[in-house]
Amino acid sequence: MTDTKDETDVESRSLDDNLTAPVLDRSLVDPVYQAKAHVLNNAIQQIGMGKYQWELFVLVGFGWSMDNMWPIITSLILPAVALEFNQSKPPLLSLAQNIGLLAGAIFWGFGCDIFGRRVAFNATIGVTAVFGLIAAGSPNFAAIGCFAAFWSVGVGGNLPVDSAVFLEFLPGSHQYLLTILSIFWALAQLLATLVAWPLLGYRTCSETDTTPCTRSRNFGWRYFLIAMGGFATICFALRFVVFTLYESPKYLMGKGRDAEAVAVVHKVARKNGKHSPLSLADLEMHNEGGQQGVDAAAALKRKLEKVSMTHVRALFRTKKLAYSTSLIMCIWAFIGLAFPLYNAYIPYTLISRGASFGDGSTYLTYRNSLIIAVLGVPGALMGGVLVEVPLVGRKGALALSVVLTGVFLFASTTAKNSNDLLGWNCGFNFASNVMYAVLYAYTPEIFPTKDRGTGNALTASANRVFGIMAPIIAIYADLKTAAPVYVSGALFLAAGALTCALPFESRGKASL
User: Fold this and answer.
1) CA distance between the termini of the chain
2) Could you give the count of Cα atoms lying within 13 Å of 480 in the half-sphere of its Cβ?
3) Is the CB of residue 160 less than 8 Å from the CB of residue 43?
4) HEC sequence for 256-323
5) I want to staple 91 with a disulfide (CB 3.0 to 4.6 A). Which of 25, 108, 382, 474 is the partner?
6) pLDDT attached to residue 30
7) d(Cα 96, Cα 70) in Å, to the nearest integer?
8) Pick from 409, 440, 414: which is nearest to 338 by CA?
9) 143 to each of 76, 149, 218, 220, how far by Cα in Å?
10) How high is the pLDDT of residue 327?
């Protein structure tokens, strides 16, 4: 037992305490797993940030892009689709989308802890691309709703899977890049609105038109889906054909496949032009009772684990870990309702409230949507800066940005004209991009690797379940009033308060 204790105390003698000290307390994670995770952290840190990680950074960025782009696409086509199909309850399209997002978060998030990261990483964008392209030919509102749900199954898996993949190959010295990834999230919104402006701004029926909205006069949203589906296809091809993703070494180690984990580390080192001294013996020396996980009993246990709640229970193993997991799920849930309740209907709001201000043209609506999207880019970059500021860190940056997002929403109710509304929406988008940049980085950092996919799935599922409520509320609330805005703003403020109670600060610490 003394030898084991000495090995699990290896954090205090790491190459760099600030870079490899674990986020989670030692008592919260299995000691054998923790010791091996530390060995792999050191190996990845020795290899450093190289070609493999930078290529992965870009490809994971595609997943971040899809996560924001397709809900934005739904919100952008919503007014045109509602007019063409004469739909009295347009938010039903968002409801279909959110049901698909929930299914995707559950399936891919939990699944990647069972069948590995590679399959999920390569499949999610492919599913999105296929159904996004098919949706362009939708003959009625029911069809576009079904296809939106199907493409969202792919979208829903991007962040739970991609954040786990990237974090597990990232040196501790570069974990801030998980926050910087949100630049892709902001650029996706910018790209979608930039393409939507000419296609939807000029080839779309207007709410003020006196003639019926026919398919021939309203083809803009179909061209738009083809363009965005084509972009998703390119992203899928780059992931699946051009780049070779290695299975996560920590995932392999957590499954008892130590030799494969070592082999992956050496492959990454070679691609980076480096040499890794890691050997199988470095991992096996931490095993208790011989080689870990290769006998028949261990194999049977792993098979049974696939149909058990092992990964879920691990996240509630102690009071502190259960408290942390529950709190982050609540934060994701509140934001999951607040964000789509407002953001998903921004184009609709701009049109309806713009009409009451006397300037609700389709062209002006999509121009303003583009201006709002531009502010997301500096917001994502600001998030990357704030998380590394001493005394602020992940928790401080998250709490500040969530509260400011709610404040800007409340302020938007004071708008007297379209320019006022545009200004407050720009502030909202800036603050919300800071918020998501930090949230997407912080969440996977506080889960151990072997349960990270499950942890990401739990938070994403909480987010999507509450997201389903947003279109239901929108159906029965008048989107032309400020009521949904007040509800959304209050939820953001509540999420900000919960953030202050989170027990772990991950700045400057290596994930397990």
Assistant:
1) 22
2) 8
3) no
4) CCHHHHHHHHHHHHHHCCCCCCCCHHHHHCCCCCCCCCCCHHHHHHHHHHCCCCHHHHHCCCCHHHHH
5) 474
6) 61
7) 13
8) 409
9) 17, 10, 17, 17
10) 92
For the stretch 238-245, contacts whose Cβ atoms lie closer than 8 Å and that sit 24 or more positions apart, written own/partner, are 238/59, 238/62, 239/59, 239/62, 239/121, 239/122, 239/125, 240/122, 240/126, 243/55, 243/56, 243/59, 245/56, 245/59, 245/117, 245/118, 245/121, 245/122, 245/165
Q: Which two tokens stand for residue 188?
A: 């996706």
H/E run at residue 153: helix 141-167
Between CA 383 and CA 302 the distance in angstroms is: 39
pTM listed for this prediction = 0.73
Q: Which of 333, 373, 376 lies closest to 76 in space, CA to CA?
A: 373
**C-alpha span between 223 and 264 (Å, rounded):** 43
Residue 321 vs residues 51, 219, 284, 446: alpha-carbon distances, Å: 35, 51, 27, 9
Phi then psi dihedrals of residue 278, to 5 deg: -60, 135
pLDDT given for residue 352 in this prediction: 56
Helix (H, G, I), strand (E, B) or coil at 500: coil
* The pLDDT value given to residue 193: 86
The amino acid occupying position 362 is: T
Q: Please report the pLDDT score of residue 164 as a whole number.
A: 81
Place of tokens 């994701």: 332
Angle among Cα 99, 105, 109 to the nearest 5 degrees reads 160
Check if the beta carbon of residue 248 is closer than 8 Å to that of residue 255.
Answer: no
**How far apart are alpha carbons 490 and 435 in whole angstroms?**
16
From the first residue on, what is the mean pLDDT of each consecutive set of 10 residues in the chain (512 residues)? Answer: 41 43 51 80 88 92 90 88 86 90 86 80 92 94 95 89 84 79 85 86 72 83 94 93 86 84 91 89 72 41 49 80 90 89 63 52 73 86 80 85 92 80 88 88 78 80 85 71 78 92 70 50
